[in-house]
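Researcher: We're reviewing a set of sequences before deciding which ones to prioritize for further study. For each one, I'd like a predicted 3D structure that I can look through quickly. This is glucan endo-1,3-beta-D-glucosidase. If possible, include the structure in token form so it fits the rest of the review sheet.
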Amino acid sequence: MRERCCGIVVLLLFGMCINALGAFVGVNLGTSVSNLPSPSDIVAILKSHQITHLRLYNADPQLLKALANSSIEVIVGVTNEEVLRIGESPAAAAAWVNKNVAAHLPGTNITAIAVGSEVLTTIPHVGPVLVPAMYSLHKALVAANLNYLIKVSTPQSMDIIPRPFPPSTASFDASWNSTIYQLLQFLKNTKSYYMLNAYPYYGYTSGNGSFPLDYALFRSLPAIKQIVDPNTLFHYNSMFDAMVDATYYSIEAFNFSEIPVVVTETGWPSFGGANEPDATIQNAGTYVSNLIRRVSNDSGPPSQPTIPINTYLYELFNEDKRPGPISEKNWGILFPNGSAVYPLSLMSGRATANSSEVYCVAKDGADEDKLQDGLNWACGQGGANCVAIQQGRPCFLPNNITDHASYAYNDYYQKMRGAGGTCDFDGTATLTTVDPSHGSCIFTGSSNSSGGGGFSPPALGPSGQLPGASSKLQMSSFQLFILVIFSWALMFIFT
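Model: Here's the predicted structure for glucan endo-1,3-beta-D-glucosidase, in token form for your review sheet.
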């Protein structure tokens, strides 16, 4: 018993250290795959791509066993077929927790239970027992002394918010008012989080031209086309942010606050049928790369700027056995052999966030005209080697101004920082410890212990210091504090 308790304390403290590092991007694992790798191979693939967070749609015992001692944080899923039984029987909930959670601790780092998947919009007849199922599972966790380690929530789709724009007027479907209130009360009481499935792909394709493609792909828009909430005057640089904010405002409409939103599904299909022209490898690569960059900046949407948006990509592999349109089978970011479907930098920037390497990249949402000017300057007067971003070269894809500017900015910065060159480019650049390399496109990093001097190149050259750089130092101090607590706890346990 003592060893089990020690293991759980270690897991909890480890989780605190991980969470202190900021926002993360994880992945969902669907299993409708003809040649699905073995559980041990799946874990090896996750590790090879530094994927630190995984969501399962079930509680597959072989996979949970394979995940033991991997440090990967796992959300286990109650399937939609199981929700009704658990909601009607506390004994069934207790048995489910004992079999699918407690039996795998402390070796497997289970951090949450996702109860069903989009229950209210896909199986509405089960809706009335959804929250009772969550309470029963939570009570089972309390009985096992695991409630402080594992949260309970339920993923819901954006369809439960009929009119998400403008975000400030968004509200949940009134027909579910009673259930939603109970759900939010549960999340508040248990200090859990709202699980949101947010798909700008569907928001764009069903919008009939209401919003530009660039808005769905995190690409910056010219001033005359920027998306603005007329009530708050908040500018939305992406449909993703608008969807998350619509959820926060919907929660607020029920007079609840301090319930963070975690995006449990998002992504973009890499292939589709003739009537799905936007399902392309280029769009998928652009969306996912920009999403990772967006999440890794540790900020929230306009209404909640200090709450990072932890996010899970849909999904790890293409599920060729799924029914429906062609695009439905092509959301995977990796092939079953572990190679990438398209160039991207996997996965959680948090794996390298405390690295000694720093990179200079384009800011999310930076004005495209300024980025183009900065790119031209870096590749010209700045002396950056921009061959790698030419067509047919390793860093040409994703083919967009933000990624190309990032490569040029970084090449300039790494060459010139010793002579005083800085990372600014008329306010369009920022320093990061998240390695932007992807596939065969390699970004050179440099130690952040040596500084850049006061050299200020003319016009478009880097001329500033990273806003908020001190916050990174504060975060490191916090991590040190956590490690001290961790060490103290271990001394207490083993003495």
